[in-house]
Amino acid sequence: VTEQGEMITQNFGSPAIAERTLDIYTAAVLREAFVKHVEPSNGWRNQMQRISKASCSGYRELVREEPKFVPYFRQATPELELGSLNIGSRPAKRNPKGGIESLRAIPWTFAWTQTRLHLSAWFGVGDGLTSEVRSYM
């Protein structure tokens, strides 16, 4: 198990919380060891692959190709301020002068989380599901 530094106090900050955290870890290990797993069928895997491909395409079209996206992202999120916060173990960007593509995954997601939009988690799902439904029509 790997814990991020900022989570250690939250998960192990008192004996009671540490015991609860270790109970959760132990239960997860035991479940993984003793519960029989059902392998998904190849048909299901293929269907998920098609949905994933269409979802990813819709997401990338917005993030990489829509010219108004970067200005919107900069206005709608605290992306520019993230670098000055004293959180995380790495800089928010790989290249301080770079654009969105230089943002690390955690600051990218954190910026969207601050808006409660969660774009990085959900955008493209509709494209994937719509594409799959249309393939059956």
Automatic annotation (TrEMBL):
GO cellular component: cytosol
Protein name in UniProt: Phosphoenolpyruvate carboxylase
GO MF annotation: an example: phosphoenolpyruvate carboxylase activity
PANTHER family, per the entry: PHOSPHOENOLPYRUVATE CARBOXYLASE
Record-linked InterPro entries: PEP_COase (IPR021135), Pyrv/PenolPyrv_kinase-like_dom (IPR015813)
UniProt-listed GO biological process terms: carbon fixation; tricarboxylic acid cycle
Domain of life the protein comes from: Eukaryota
Signal sequence interval, chain numbering: none
